Each structure stands twice: as structure tokens, then as C-alpha cells.
């Protein structure tokens, strides 16, 4: 059966990035590291060329392709978080050491990869049976950087954030 797996392009950071990512989520591991067999654009013979890894059950490939290309928001990875503690832990880890935070639960990690750190509760508030509550939750989300489950709940219920 054919399978699709994302390939992330790095400039010498493939192994570091893969090890970092697998340290964050359960059901994650390094599957294989392949070194360059000759000197080339991707590096000297003996240096890491590709890293195959599994991240939360999804296979990935990290490639040291040579010249760095910047990632865009057109491709991002969304992590569904069970609770605020998980949102906080992943947000802090992925935005650390040169990462940058953005609006509505988006961030870029230190490698430039875009992530969406989203509590699963978000869908219950944005898609709830109360249309006015859903609008209030959406407005609250649009004003957040890191998503806050309690703030979303209060907005949905029409309660003051204070």
C-alpha cells in the first residue's frame, strides 16, 4: 500500500530536529539514520543525509538537503492537545531557543517549522450548539497567542475573562 509521509528539508540540522521532535510526543522514535556516502551538496561523506522518524505514529523524513529553504505557513503541523498542561508543555518546548510565537495557537520552532498547538476543546467551543457562544469563543481565540482553554470556555459561556 502506498503511504504519504512529509519530508522536512534542513541544512545540517536533520538529526537534531528529528531527535527534538520525537522527545516531545508519545509513539515517536528515530527509525533510521543514513549518512552521506560521498561528498555532495547535502554534506561531506559520513555526515547525516536523512533521518527517518515516527512522530505520534506518523512517519516523517528529515533531509539535510544543503542550502536552507524557509518554511511557510502554507504547510504546518497541528497537534491536538488533551488539556492546558499539554498545550503549555508543547508550546514552551517548540517555541524555545529561537522559536517565535504567533496568533491563534501558531508558532514556528527554532528550525522554522510551523506548528499549531490546539486544545481538542477548541472544536467544542467553536462548533458548539450555541451560535452566540461559538462567535464569542472565536473572537476570544482571535485575540489569543497561545490558546487558553479556560478563556475559551468563559467566552463561550458569556462569562467575563476577569
Automatic annotation (TrEMBL):
PANTHER family: PHNB-LIKE DOMAIN-CONTAINING PROTEIN (PTHR33990:SF2), PROTEIN YJDN-RELATED (PTHR33990)
Domain PhnB-like: 3-118
Protein name (database record): VOC family protein
InterPro entries in the record: 3_dmu_93_MTrfase (IPR009725), Glyas_Bleomycin-R_OHBP_Dase (IPR029068), PhnB-like (IPR028973)
Annotated SUPFAM superfamilies: Glyoxalase/Bleomycin resistance protein/Dihydroxybiphenyl dioxygenase
UniProt lineage: Bacteria, Pseudomonadati, Pseudomonadota, Alphaproteobacteria, Hyphomicrobiales
Gene3D superfamilies: 2,3-Dihydroxybiphenyl 1,2-Dioxygenase, domain 1
Pfam family, one: 3-dmu-9_3-mt
Amino acid at each position: 500500500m502506498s503511504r504519504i509521509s512529509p519530508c522536512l528539508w534542513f541544512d545540517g540540522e536533520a538529526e537534531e530536529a528529528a531527535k527534538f521532535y520525537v522527545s516531545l510526543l508519545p509513539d515517536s522514535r528515530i527509525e533510521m539514520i543514513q549518512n552521506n556516502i560521498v561528498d555532495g551538496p547535502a554534506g561531506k561523506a559520513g555526515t547525516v543525509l536523512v533521518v527517518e522518524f515516527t512522530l505520534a505514529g506518523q512517519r516523517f523524513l528529515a533531509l539535510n538537503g544543503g542550502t536552507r529553504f524557509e518554511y511557510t505557513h502554507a504547510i504546518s503541523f497541528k497537534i491536538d492537545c488533551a488539556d492546558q498542561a499539554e498545550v503549555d508543555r508543547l508550546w514552551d518546548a517548540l517555541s524555545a531557543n529561537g522559536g517565535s510565537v504567533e496568533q491563534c495557537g501558531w508558532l514556528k520552532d527554532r528550525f522554522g517549522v510551523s506548528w499549531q498547538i490546539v486544545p481538542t476543546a477548541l472544536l467544542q467551543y467553536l462548533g458548539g450548539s450555541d451560535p452566540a457562544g461559538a462567535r464569542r469563543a472565536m473572537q476570544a481565540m482571535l485575540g489569543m497567542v497561545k490558546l487558553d482553554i479556560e478563556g475559551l470556555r468563559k467566552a463561550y459561556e458569556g462569562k467575563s475573562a476577569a
